[in-house]
Amino acid sequence: MSERILSVLVEDKPGVLARVSSTISRRGFNINSLSVGPTNIEGRSKMTIVTELDAVEQVKKQLNKLVNVIKIVELDPSMTIETEVLLLKVSINKDSQTSVIEKASLSNATSVDVGQDFAIFELTGSSKELDKFESLMKPFGIIEMVRGGRIALQSNL
Amino acid sequence: MTKDKLSGAELVIRGLEHINVSTVFGVPGGAILPAYDPLYDSPIRHILARHEQGAGHMAEGYAQATGELGVVIATSGPGATNLITPLANALMDSTPLLAITGQVASDAIGNDAFQEAYTVGLSMAATKHNYLITDASEIPQILKEAKYIATTGRPGPVLIDIPKDILNQQASWVEPGALDLPGYKPTLEPNPKMVQQASNLIKKSKKPILYVGGGIIHSKANTELFDLATKFKIPVVTTLMGRGAFPDGHELCLEMPGMHGNYTATTSIQNADLLIAIGVRFDDRVTANPSFFAQNAKVIHADIDPAEIGKVRDAEVPIVGDAKSVIKGLIESLDDTNLDTEGWISELKDMKSKFPLSYKQEAKGPLKVPYVLEELQKLTKEEAIVVSGVGQHQMWISQHWNFTEPNTWLNSGGLGTMGYALPGAIGAKTAYPNKLVLALDGDGCFQMTCQELITASTENIPIKIVVFNNGNHGMVRQWQKIFYNSKFSASELTHDTPDYVKLAESMGAIGMRMMEKSDVEKVFNKMLEINDKPVLVDCVVDPDDMVFPMVPAGGSNDQIIMNKEDLKNL
Fold it and tell me: How many Cα atoms sit within 13 Å of B4 on the Cβ side?
């Protein structure tokens, strides 16, 4: 099933994230990713919701019923700039160090912290690029990893 | 007011007066206490319920009877959690309700303080919208906003949670201003193109059915509906929430379809070539299995809530808008169209006479609810407001009572909340002290909120209650009989405990009892004569009676069980 991306403009009011996520879970909808942050307009936040639902029309309608939800736009993936952020802590030793750093730099990941037996990398990119980097690092031993929600903008409206 | 500053509590009461609230239902308690102090001096009438659930249903009954906002006040913690049922009930049945709850002081929130509950979180999925007030100066504006949200678009419940320190905080009264709700703009006027498409479909239709519900009543569109149906000769089915939107007894009225609907109403939808659905939501109690529902029909679906359109059944013509405007648009667009529905109407007329609702009251046998209902309606000279609980008695009332006016049939349709009748009737009678208000209840339902009988007596609200006492959870028993091999697990209540007559008397009401056919007229006449006190009639009825017709849950509306004999083929 193909992914659908919803860009949801909301009022920046207490509980708005809880309202949106409660509506989604109450109606039995599943989501792959949800991120929220401020916009250039004061008092407005934007949520990016990624789902694989056929029922995306129902999700949109139910979310639109929330008083604090102002506008929902479904983004066309072919015209959408999408990015995601990842922080990954991998174990290193004398033998693996060079190889880890080399692979990270080839993947355009930035090293943000290096200790005696670990390194932390940051990578921003598409979900696929992040997946690829994760699998490259796996053999060295991933200690911890976190990925931020996906955010998106339509490049051409 | 002479004071420069008011307390948050005073702002609440003044704010309620400002939005024209004349009656509130509630129960006081610690966190909400500050609000009860200025309430004492206000012209607003407060009805002291015996339980917050009762208070909530009273406010719903008030709102369902008037079409206006019902208001309930409760304290924090258990006061608020007891309100969850009425809130969820109002959300399901689109009843405009405002709940004001006290909350522990702002600095105690999140600390598991005494009588603390996360009211905003708990009520989030049971309200249309809710608020936590963080500054007393917001109160007048938020009250105005809350009323607007509760009563416009698809109506529903709104809750305002106010911490105790905010109720005590001093602030100036600022006249509420224009509303700033960028995300809330209900569509009232339908798109004329869609109305045109709808009327094109209607013109081509040979077997149209107007399938209408609660939306007609909320929109006060019954006159327009009457014009549409009678001018173009389109038969009408009214759902449980729409009973009274089109007058029973009219030749075009087919009454209620669905699980316990009459044969003709349910079958008319199955045989229709066009459903003109207005203010309905294709509830599972109407459609049964949606794959078998109205398979031959195209669908025009008009609703004020866009999320209802296409939720259960795709519509050939979706129309978002207020029922009244939609119907006016349709009448205008159809203009002088002559629909040839004579054949269709006579087909349905034949069906009605071939498959009527039936019951058998034997002279010496136990009382049957449909018989008692029909006798009661004969004896009532005026249009009554009828309020019911949930279950067998509710279905029998909807089937056998003749509803001719909107807002005269109040019940818990969507949520199916047992215990609605008594408090609901108290709310309705508070709104209309001069109207006859009947709480027609089951014994199982009555026992869920019967303490509110004390509210009715002490507040001088002379409603009339009939408890259809079959000593059982009747609908549960019916299902156990049909689907669980007559294994009556936990459905028996015993019909003589409590003694309802003594219970009524102990609660300040008048109690009476009817056991057999010869009692009915006598007891009801006596009941109808008493107008200064609540009256309760313990009506002992047959525990083995079952509601028919019936379409089992998830079944097909083409396979209607008409009577006990049909069960053998199940």
Answer: 0
CA distances from A147 to A3, A99, B363 (A): 18, 23, 77
As a CATH number, domain B369-548 is: 3.40.50.970
Residues of chain B with pLDDT below 50 are 1
pLDDT at B159: 98
pLDDT of residue A30: 84
With a CB cutoff of 8 Å and minimum separation 6, the contacts of B266 are B257, B258, B549, B551, B557, B560
**Has B52 been annotated as catalytic?**
yes
Would you kindly state where each structural domain of chain B is located, as residue ranges?
Answer: 6-170, 192-354, 369-548
Q: A90 and A68: one domain?
A: no
Burial environment of residue B515 by CB neighbours within 10 A (0 to 12, 13 to 18, 19 or more): middle
A19 interfacial to chain B (CB closer than 8 Å): yes
Element (H, E) at B370: helix B369-379
> pLDDT by residue (tens digit) across B461-497?
999 999 999 999 999 999 999 999 999 999 999 889 9
Instruction: Find the catalytic residue in B10, B52, B138, B452.
Output: B52
- Give residue A138's domain range: 81-154
Residue B475 annotated to the active site: yes
Q: Do A48 and A87 belong to one domain?
A: no
**Which pLDDT does position A32 carry in this prediction?**
87
Contact B183 A15 (CB under 8 A): no
CATH architecture type of domain B6-170: 3-Layer(aba) Sandwich (3.40)
CA distance A70 to chain B (A): 4
Torsions phi, psi of B348, nearest 5?
A: -70, -35
Q: What is the ipTM of this complex?
A: 0.90
Interface test mutation site (partner A, options B130, B184, B282, B304, max chain A beta carbons within 10 A): B184
User: Is B293 one of the catalytic residues?
Assistant: no
pLDDT at site B380: 96
Q: Is the confidence at residue A53, as pLDDT, over 80?
A: no
Domain closes at, from A55, A75, A95 = A75
